[in-house]
């Protein structure tokens, strides 16, 4: 199924993505995000995936893992504290997703030395430490109007 989007749809999807970026530590779900985008939950999920290359939940978890990596690099919080600080409610689920995206457990990541990255500007460090799936960076750019992929393709 091809998902066609207007410029207005993309603006509303970006508004919902901005909510995820800003409020990643809060309880967020598809129906609430769909309301922000003024779409039904099903249409929102399909459109979000077509526009950004991943589901809203996957995008949210990637944001949480990015923030968790920063907190773990500081070294002053336990893995459990970091888990709850980024909005996860289950240490097991958080650890599984972190390991999937980063390639090592949160404990191993926290225990590893991170001094080599201290001199890197924060904006570069954020890009360079972004979690990836299967060694490939997650697509972040929206698909231009008329270029939307099938919701089931990947």
Automatic annotation (TrEMBL):
Stretches the record annotates as Disordered: 134-154
Domain HTH araC/xylS-type: 14-112
UniProtKB keywords: DNA-binding, Transcription, Transcription regulation
Any Pfam family the entry gives: HTH_18
Compositionally biased region (Basic and acidic residues): 136-147
Keyword check for DNA-binding: yes
PANTHER family: HTH-TYPE TRANSCRIPTIONAL ACTIVATOR RHAS-RELATED
Protein name as annotated: Transcriptional regulator
The organism of origin for this protein: Streptomyces virginiae
């Amino acid at each position: 199924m091809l998902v066609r989007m207007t410029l207005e749809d993309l603006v509303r999807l970006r508004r919902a993505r901005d909510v995820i970026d800003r409020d990643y530590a809060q309880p967020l779900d598809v129906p609430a995000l769909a309301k922000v985008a003024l779409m039904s939950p099903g249409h929102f999920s399909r459109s979000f995936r077509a526009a950004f290359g991943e589901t809203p939940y996957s995008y949210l978890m990637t944001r949480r893992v990015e923030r968790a990596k920063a907190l773990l690099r500081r070294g002053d919080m336990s893995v459990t504290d970091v888990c709850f600080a980024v909005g996860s409610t289950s240490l097991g689920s958080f650890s599984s997703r972190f390991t999937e995206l980063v390639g090592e457990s949160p404990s191993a990541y926290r225990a590893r030395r991170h001094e080599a990255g201290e001199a890197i500007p924060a904006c570069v460090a954020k890009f360079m430490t972004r979690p990836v799936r299967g060694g490939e960076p997650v697509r972040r750019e929206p698909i231009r109007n008329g270029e939307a992929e099938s919701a089931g393709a990947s």
